[in-house]
Amino acid sequence: ALAVRPDPPWAVIAQENPAGLVLADLATRQVLATIPLKNEPEALTVHPVTVEGLVLDEKARALLRVDLDTRATVETVPLGEKPVAVAVDPTLNLAAVVLKKDKEPGPLGALQLIQLPYPAPTLTTVSPAEALRGSSTVTVTVTGNGFFIASQVTADGQALPTTYLSPTELKTDLPAGFLTQAARLQLAVRN
Predict the structure, then answer these.
(1) What is the pTM of this model?
(2) Residue 106: what pLDDT?
(3) Other CB atoms within 10 A of residue 37 CB
């Protein structure tokens, strides 16, 4: 099995013997590291937002969340049935695992959806950075990292209606009620 980490561009390759993941830099074509695993990986994918490897361990009937930066397994999720394929929905932050029941005909069994933990988002810029006192509603664009469809912009701790644009961009409307007097607002993002 093979997956690609988008940034930096690494190939993540399932290795049989010894069982593990091989990380290779696509730009230099150099092997960076081998991450040992207890059992041979059946399938894998890379989460494009959290940049974790999601690895199927058929023998243990589990999904492994592997931090590719620290090269460590951060969670083992039991699946119950034999896993055969995995994919990730980065917008909803879900892993989709195809399971096959033992001794049943056909290639597929059930689809198990696993809600992955949301990382802490990072807010880097707010635009516009200022609004005039007494203004009507102001549309604000927030940029950063680790945003998902469930991310929410807050102003002084109050949740604002938020539109997801991408893993690095959100939009919200700052209501006129926040702009009635001169003040500095604390904008934040929570997942």
Answers:
(1) 0.78
(2) 62
(3) 19
